[in-house]
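pinning this so it doesn't scroll away 📌
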Amino acid sequence: MPESLVKPILKKDATDSAEFSSSRYKKVWFDSVAINYHKMILGDNPAVSDGAPVTIGWDAHEVEVVDVDCFEATRPKAKKLSSLKLAVEDRAAILLQNGYTIKQLAKTLQQVEEIQRQRAQSCEMSKWDRLNEFAESSGKIFRKMAKLTPAVASRPSKKTNPAA
C-alpha cells in the first residue's frame, strides 16, 4: 500500500489533556474508512441454496481509503438480507469472469450436492435414532408393567377372604 494512503484513523481531540483522559467517559472519533476489495473465488460452503458457492479471496487486491463523513454520506442504505443473495446465473458469471472453467464449477457443484445429500441423510438418520430410542424406552416400561401384572393378579384380594 502506498505511504500516502497510510494515515492514522483516530482523530485527536483538542481537549486531549490529562483532565479529559481521566474523565469518566471517553470518546473516539474515526477519521477515515479503509475499504478492501477482494477477488471473488469459487467457494466450498455446502450451505449454498443452488449452484456453485462464491466466496472472497484472502488477499485484498485494492484498498481505498475514504474520509468517514464522505463514506457515511454516500454509502447505500441497508438492504434486506434476501436481496443480498446472488442468483445462480450471477454467481456462475462472476466465477467464469474470474477465470474458472465450467468443468471446475460442475465438479464443485457435484461436491456440494454430495455433502448436502449426506447432511440430509444424517438428519433423517437422527430422526430414526430418536424414534428407536423412544421405542426402546417404551419397551422397557411395557416389560416392567408386564412383570408387575402377573404378581398383582396372583395376590388374593380382601373380598375373597372368608374370615373377613
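📌 and the second one:
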Amino acid sequence: MICVNKFDLNPAEARIIEDVAREKDLTALKRIPFDPIFTKAMVQGKNVFEYNTNSEACRVIKQIWGKIGEILGISK
C-alpha cells in the first residue's frame, strides 16, 4: 500500500508514483495534501492530531488508517 504525501505540490509526479504503484500491484490509499499544520505542530512539539484534529490533513490521515484497517481486516 502507498499514500502520496504533499501530492498537490507536484500533481504530475504524484500521478507517476501512483502509476508505478499500480504496475507493482500496490494499493494507492489516498493523497495527503500539503498542509503547513505539520510544521506548526512540530514547532509546538506535537503531532498533527494533538495540534488540530480538525485539519484537512488529519481528516485524510484518519481515512488512510481506516482503509488500512479494512484491508487488514482489523477495522472497528
